[in-house]
Amino acid sequence: MNNWPPPKTLQTLRGFLGLTGYYRKFVKDYGKIVAPLTALLKKDAFTWTHVTECAFDKLKQAMCTTLILAMPAFSKPFTIESDACSNGLVAVLLQDAHPIGLTREALSGKNLAASTYEKEMMSILHVVQKWQSYLLGNHFCIKTDHQSLKYFLE
Fold it and tell me: Exposed (0-12), middle (13-18) or buried (19+): which is 94, by Cβ within 10 Å?
């Protein structure tokens, strides 16, 4: 990735953005980094500038320094770290402190008006359902920052 040459044509730019776009959810601020490059995709807008060169280099650097997902080992326990904010749910599936999966879901409708407690519980229920094929029959730990949920089973 570090040695990838700057795109000379629109087709090679699309190829590069297609490859990096596959991993976009693992790159922090992917949309902001790639904005100057996606602007080149407009009709008759492909003009390579210093700004696009900087964005290209920054994107390559981000792709090379992002955490890489690990393959699960079903003989080891899993850890789920979940959190909820005012408009969404986020969770990471970990094993030996290495990420196995990441999920984000936006809240809508009546769920936006739910209490913090309910949103935190929705986050946990969402990830257990999403990753049930990994978790079923295996030991796992759920970590949350919400105090009342920490003692849910006690």
Answer: buried
Domain with 112, as residue range(s), is 78-150
Model-level pTM? 0.57
**Would strands 78-84 and 140-143 be described as parallel, antiparallel, or unpaired?**
parallel
Name which of 137, 125, 66 is nearest 91 in CA terms. 125
- Partner residues linked to 105 by β-bridges: 89
Backbone angles phi, psi at 60, to 5 degrees: -60, -45
The pLDDT tens digits for 127-146 are: 899 999 989 888 898 888 77
49/100 same-domain check: no
Task: Give CA–CA dist 87/89, Å, rounded.
Answer: 7
